[in-house]
């Protein structure tokens, strides 16, 4: 029985049923009984493993096929009618051609299987910023994850109403998880996503990257709002006021850690607190007062497990203690709990590694193997987070004072600097880049451009996306958030990080907030406003961050910056413009201005 009278939904589901030919169709109402039955079924078939219900109540474990452990950017497509509308950062194919090709793969793919029809809302139900999606899938793992990551169930249909056609149609089948026929395809002009031959998170939880970033960025461009790859946090100051900040970083730069930051002792004593609104995605729209408001469209965290521990992120660790799904971490068979690299120094002896082999974890890791996959994940409800913001469910969102960009840069980029204005800040976003780490495949230390940390997620032409940023700035005028760039990863000559990072990043947030309030001066440099060295509070870390180190952290080296600007010019010309991306003149003008200031 369908859960809605909306004929647009019913007609589309009928079409998907005719295509995939499932044995059964189950509409997901989101009730506790239905979810419980699905959990039991997944446990009975071995799709999920029940963990120790005393130590980890409500937690389940899942392993994906070893060929299916991450997002697949080379098999991800933006199918717009005109190729130039997808632009140089996306793979493109003609939509009719892609529909025809994939229809063959979907034809009868669910024979003998059940199709689950999942209604969900991205954003609090009833929020003017929220949007509805419907995902059909043949995976219980997807249903149970969507239950954590979105507001899933019959209420989402209530929000859609009986006549609206404004919902994102998501078709997913794990098929036979064949990497050769794996496709993650967005059709932004049709509000449609087709995903096949994967059963891994980012490829199949269609509300996340596919909808909330790729489709939503396209919608935002047309409807006057922004979908960004940004965390959202609130800093409560001693006077009780909370300032909200968003931040965009490429992967492996500690986004979840910053979102859940615990301030250093001195700050805590003074009454500072940090609250998490989101750790991955922000939807932002001007409010009635002209300021930019943000919601987190998600309802949970799909976090990377390895590296998460009591020290790096106790809040995230706490999130995983109940009602969480673990994917591709290791099992401790003695007590049916989970383990991953850097959780602690005690890998379980009686372990099952992420591919399913029973091993002695101590010996196995001593030989240089990892028990958990480096991209293994926890899917945890946002409500588990000890520092979740009281505004998490506020339909109006939170007003944003500052937007931060950042990347992993061993040199060149100072600890923090502020843009001169929104246009310069848009330039800074377009220049986001990060050096590869040993964790990723390929050479270490190679600079990768990742504009606004959105390269894999912009659902249209990157040049038009930058133009949209500039338009939003014009609309917001003097109410626009201030824009900053940070770099937690500066190194000395020996390759050691010179900034402690983690909770101490609060010291940088402090300066950023004071800049927003106009209560601290800055030094005007060629690249933007930098802190005066005495304005970054180092109380408690004076031994580590000496005045000499602070000089290094805040250095703007003319030679390195001249190189940086030359590289940006090359990037705009060769990687974007020559490949069909229309770089706005205003961004070239920013390059000219920085260059002129450097040479002054
Ligand atoms: C993520 C990503 O999984 O950005 O959030 O890859
Ligand atoms: Mn992300």
Separation of the first and last Cα atoms: 72 Å
User: Unreliable stretches, pLDDT < 50, 5 or more residues?
Assistant: none
Summed up, the helix count is 17
Q: How would you sum up the major sheet?
A: 9 strands, mixed
Q: What's the overall geometry?
A: globular
How many β-strands, per DSSP? 31
- As a percent range, the share of helical residues equals 25-40%
Beta-strand content bin: 15-25%
Calculate the mean pLDDT score and round it: 97
The kinds of small molecule bound in this structure are: oxalic acid, manganese (II) ion
Structural class: alpha+beta
Gyration radius, rounded: 24 Å
How would you sum up this structure in a few lines?
With 600 residues, this protein is of the alpha+beta class. The chain is 30% helix and 22% strand. Helix 12 (422-430) packs antiparallel against helix 13 (462-476) and helix 12 crosses helix 17 (585-599).
């Amino acid at each position: 029985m369908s859960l809605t009278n909306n004929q647009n939904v019913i007609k589309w589901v009928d079409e998907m049923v005719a295509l995939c030919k499932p044995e059964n169709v189950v509409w997901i109402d989101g009730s506790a009984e239905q979810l419980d039955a699905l959990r039991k079924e997944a446990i009975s078939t071995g799709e999920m493993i029940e963990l120790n219900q005393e130590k980890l109540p409500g937690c389940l474990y899942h392993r994906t096929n070893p060929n299916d452990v991450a997002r697949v950017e080379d098999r991800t497509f933006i199918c717009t009618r005109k190729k130039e509308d997808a632009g140089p950062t996306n793979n493109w194919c003609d939509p009719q051609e892609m529909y025809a090709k994939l229809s063959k793969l979907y034809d009868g793919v669910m024979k003998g299987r059940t199709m689950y029809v999942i209604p969900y809302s991205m954003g609090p139900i009833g929020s003017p910023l929220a949007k509805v999606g419907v995902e059909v899938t043949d995976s219980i793992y997807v249903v149970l994850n969507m239950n954590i990551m979105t507001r899933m169930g019959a209420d989402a249909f209530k929000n859609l109403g009986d006549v609206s056609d404004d919902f994102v149609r998501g078709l997913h089948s794990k098929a036979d998880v064949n990497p050769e026929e794996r496709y993650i395809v967005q059709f932004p002009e049709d509000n449609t996503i087709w995903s096949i031959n994967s059963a891994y998170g980012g490829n199949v939880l269609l509300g996340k990257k596919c909808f909330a970033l790729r489709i939503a960025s396209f919608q935002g461009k047309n409807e006057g709002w922004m979908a960004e790859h940004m965390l959202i946090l609130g800093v409560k100051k001693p006077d009780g006021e909370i300032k909200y900040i968003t931040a965009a970083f490429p992967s492996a730069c500690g986004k979840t850690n910053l979102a859940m930051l615990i301030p250093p002792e001195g700050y805590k004593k003074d009454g500072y607190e940090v609250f998490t609104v989101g750790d991955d995605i922000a939807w932002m729209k001007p409010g009635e007062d002209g300021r930019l408001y943000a919601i987190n469209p998600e309802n949970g965290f799909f976090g990377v497990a390895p590296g998460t521990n009591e020290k790096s992120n106790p809040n995230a660790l706490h999130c995983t203690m109940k009602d969480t799904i673990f994917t591709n971490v290791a099992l401790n068979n003695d007590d049916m709990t989970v383990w991953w690299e850097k959780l602690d120094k005690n890998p379980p002896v009686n372990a099952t590694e992420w591919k399913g082999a029973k091993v002695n974890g101590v010996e196995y890791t001593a030989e240089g193997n990892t028990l958990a996959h480096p991209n293994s994940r926890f899917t945890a409800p946002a409500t588990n987070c000890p520092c979740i913001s009281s505004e998490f469910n506020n339909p109006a969102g939170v007003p944003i004072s500052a937007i931060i960009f950042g990347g992993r840069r061993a040199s060149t980029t100072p600890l923090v600097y502020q843009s001169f204005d929104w246009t310069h800040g848009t330039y800074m976003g377009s220049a986001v880049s990060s050096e590869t780490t040993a964790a990723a495949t390929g050479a270490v230390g190679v600079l990768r451009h990742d504009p606004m940390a959105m390269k894999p997620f912009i659902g249209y032409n990157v040049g038009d996306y930058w133009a949209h940023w500039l338009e939003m700035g014009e609309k917001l005028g003097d109410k626009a958030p201030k824009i900053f760039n940070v770099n937690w990863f500066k190194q000395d000559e020996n390759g050691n990080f010179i900034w402690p990072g983690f909770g101490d990043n609060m010291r940088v947030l402090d300066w950023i907030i004071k800049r927003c309030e106009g209560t601290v001066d800055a030094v005007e440099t060629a690249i933007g406003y930098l802190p005066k060295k005495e304005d970054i509070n180092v109380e408690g870390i004076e031994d580590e961050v000496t005045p000499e180190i602070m000089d290094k952290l805040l250095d703007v080296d003319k030679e390195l910056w001249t190189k940086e600007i030359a590289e940006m010019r090359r990037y705009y010309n060769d990687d974007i413009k020559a490949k069909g991306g229309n770089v706005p003149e205003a961004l070239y003008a920013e390059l000219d201005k920085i260059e002129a200031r450097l040479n002054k």
